[in-house]
Amino acid sequence: IGPMGAGKTAVGRVLAGILHYEFYDSDHEVEKQLGADISWIFDLEGESGFRKREAAVIDEFTQKDNIVLATGGGCVITKENRDVLIKRGFVVYLSISLEEQFERVKRSKHRPLLLNDDPLAVLTQLSETREPLYNNTADLVYDTTSQKVPIIAQAIIDSLNEG
C-alpha cells in the first residue's frame, strides 16, 4: 500500500520475482475486468464506483496464496479493504516524501485525481488524509524516497526473514 508514485507496482514485481510468487496490481485488474482504464471508470462511475470495483478485486486476490498485490493509493479509504488486507496478508506501506512523489507523478495523464490546476495541493491533501490509514494498516513501513527498486525489495525480504 502507499500513495501514487511510491513504487508499489515496480517494487511489487521485483518482490514477487524474488519470492517466486505471482504479482497482481489491483488497478490493472480492475482495468482488465472492465476493458477500460481508470480515468474512464472515474469519468463514468465516479470515484465511488471505482472504489466498489477495487474492493471486489482486493477481496478476490487476497484470498489467493503466494502472491504480491500492489494496491491503488486510495484503497485504504475503504474500511473493508483495510480489514481484508490486515486479516489476509503481510502489508507493506511504501512511503515517499511529498516532493519526490510530486516529481514522479506530475506529468502523468493516467491519474484522475491529479487532473486539475494544483496537483501538489491534491497530493498534500491526500497524504494528510491517507497517511494515518496506511500506518494503521501496515505491518511494515518502508520509505522509498531516493531509493532504488531492488534495494527496497531486498529490504522488505530482509524484514520478512527477520519476522
TrEMBL record:
Organism: marine sediment metagenome
Catalytic activities: shikimate + ATP = 3-phosphoshikimate + ADP + H(+)
Molecular functions per Gene Ontology: ATP binding; shikimate kinase activity
Pathway as given in its UniProt record: Metabolic intermediate biosynthesis; chorismate biosynthesis; chorismate from D-erythrose 4-phosphate and phosphoenolpyruvate: step 5/7
Cellular component terms per the entry's GO annotation: cytosol
Listed SUPFAM superfamilies: P-loop containing nucleoside triphosphate hydrolases
Keyword list, A-Z: Amino-acid biosynthesis, Aromatic amino acid biosynthesis, ATP-binding, Kinase, Nucleotide-binding, Transferase
This protein's name: shikimate kinase
One Gene Ontology biological process: chorismate biosynthetic process
EC code: 2.7.1.71
Family, as annotated: Belongs to the shikimate kinase family.
